[in-house]
Amino acid sequence: MSIAELLKTSYTAFHAVENAEKILKKSGFAKIPRGEQFSLKEGGKYYLVDRESALVAFTVGNVAEKNFYYKFVCSHADSPCYKIKHCAENISGKYSRLEVESYGGGIWYSWFDRKLRLAGRLIVRKGEKVYARLCVSEENFVIPSLAVHMNREVNKNFAVNVQTDTQPLFALSSAVGGLNALMKKFLAEGEELVDYDLYLVSAEEPFVSGAHGEFLTAARVDNLACAFSSVEALANTKPGDGINVCAVFDSEEIGSETNQGAGSNLLKRTAERIAFALGKSKEDFYAALERSFAVSADNAHAAHPNKAELSPINKVYLGDGVIIKHHANRNYTTDGFTAGVFKTLLDKNNIRHADFHMRSDMPCGGTLGKISLGEISVDTLDIGIAQLAMHSAAETFALEDYDEMKKALSAFYACRLESVDGEVLLK
């Protein structure tokens, strides 16, 4: 699938992981079912899924002695949207609406008058068995704006109230069948819907723009552009030396502190199980971490064409390639050494790159890289693709930057990493 198709159909983190699975299976990766022991061999390609919304894939190369190390690329699959509450249907006059709550920090005004769908995970019971099933509604929904004639100040000071302003129009109240009836379309005979994790998501088609077709505008660019570039890079790279790992977490937009987020022990647990399955000791594992390198891949802010004054003096733009993100207070994990190592790799492979800093008088958001280091400490840097309108229902980036990111992560996975007492040699 193209990146446009991946962005279009990855409505939720559940669907993004499902699409990632398709890419990996097509490249010969074997799934390790949750709760089963690892059985690994050199040259093997494997992946596991955690709670349907996070994924860790890895390849096993030559791990003899000091060839045993990890190259991690970490990203996330969730994006800001609305979550449907339980008992969500409510009546306003002759209209039926759905009560929602915000997931993450979205630009909520961008969701009005837009094609939306219900998507997520249904929890199904059949007899005494409980399991999950993904769903996307065929039906479209909309959050209607209030006409300017009824709010003459709308273009001056409108602030979105998620409780009162963003309930989507669900149906005429006289219509037969509600939300549960709509969801039952996804059930087979003998199945019963017992619960759900259901979201209201953008269903609009990604579109190419620009005089030369250089831009793509779509929902969920942050952070699926990085997630899918890492999955594709791993899928297309043959195992060499060491262990290549692609981790796609959930929950980054709400702080990562969930079982399947970067704040959990998912990455460390998986890396440790890989080591033990290969006959390594705990001491071997910790020595390997000191020879390892990690990339936290999450998008960056491009200078805005209409608000250039909100960027620092040293600006980055769409089309600048791989963006290396820096912050004095370490909201990003990058330091001079890790940036130097990665720039050397990029230069060696003729991959464009630029350095990003926030304005010094503006707060800087964090990434999952800093969070995941609390569980697994290795040399790390933060990178991303430059984009506009981050956390909008429609975000824009340069298509060539996606290709540069895939080239960069492919080069990272393909390189031989020799780390000796603080010095790194890239081959």
Describe the structure.
The strands form three sheets. Strands 1, 2, 3, 4, 11, 12, 13, 14, 15, 16, 17, 18 and 19 form a 13-stranded mixed sheet that branches. The longest helix is centred in the C-terminal third of the chain and has 16 residues, at about 400-415. The chain folds into two domains: about 5-80 and about 220-425, 3-Layer(aba) Sandwich (Aminopeptidase), CATH 3.40.630.10; about 80-200, Aminopeptidase i, Domain 2 (Roll). The protein is an alpha/beta fold. The chain is globular. α2 (about 15-25) packs parallel to α6 (about 220-235). Helix content is about 25%, strand content about 30%. The chain contains eleven helices and 21 strands. β16, α9 and β17 (about 355) form a beta-alpha-beta unit. It starts with a helix and ends with a strand.
β content, as a range?
Answer: 25-35%
Rg from alpha-carbon coordinates: 22 Å
DSSP strand count: 21
- Secondary-structure class: alpha/beta
Average pLDDT level: 95
Describe the main β-sheet briefly. 13 strands, mixed
Q: What is the count of helical runs?
A: 11
CATH evolutionary superfamily of the largest domain: Zn peptidases
